[in-house]
From TrEMBL:
Lineage: Bacteria, Pseudomonadati, Bacteroidota, Flavobacteriia, Flavobacteriales
Protein known as: Uncharacterized protein
């Protein structure tokens, strides 16, 4: 079972890396539309907030199962955002 602390760290690192990749692309390609990268960053921040709220839920019966579901959701959301960054 992943601990709450490690799960929060993973969420922070994953979305931080995605945001950093979006900004690196934006700096490397200043002539492209910045609205696309800003939309990806906004979506990453919204997904981050959503997952942190789920991690901090108090009324969970089976914490192990709850954290595993969050890990799978993190992986799915991160993959979707990475595909968007790669498509830029």
């Amino acid at each position: 079972m992943a601990s709450k602390r490690l799960l929060k760290r993973d969420v922070n690192n994953v979305f931080g890396d995605i945001i950093e990749a979006a900004y690196i692309h934006q700096e490397a390609n200043p002539e492209e539309d910045k609205a696309k990268t800003e939309a990806i960053v906004d979506e990453a921040i919204a997904d981050f907030d959503e997952l942190i709220v789920k991690i901090n839920q108090k009324d969970v019966e089976n914490k192990s199962q709850h954290f595993k579901a969050i890990e799978k959701e993190l992986e799915a959301k991160a993959q979707k955002l990475i595909e968007k960054v790669n498509a830029l």
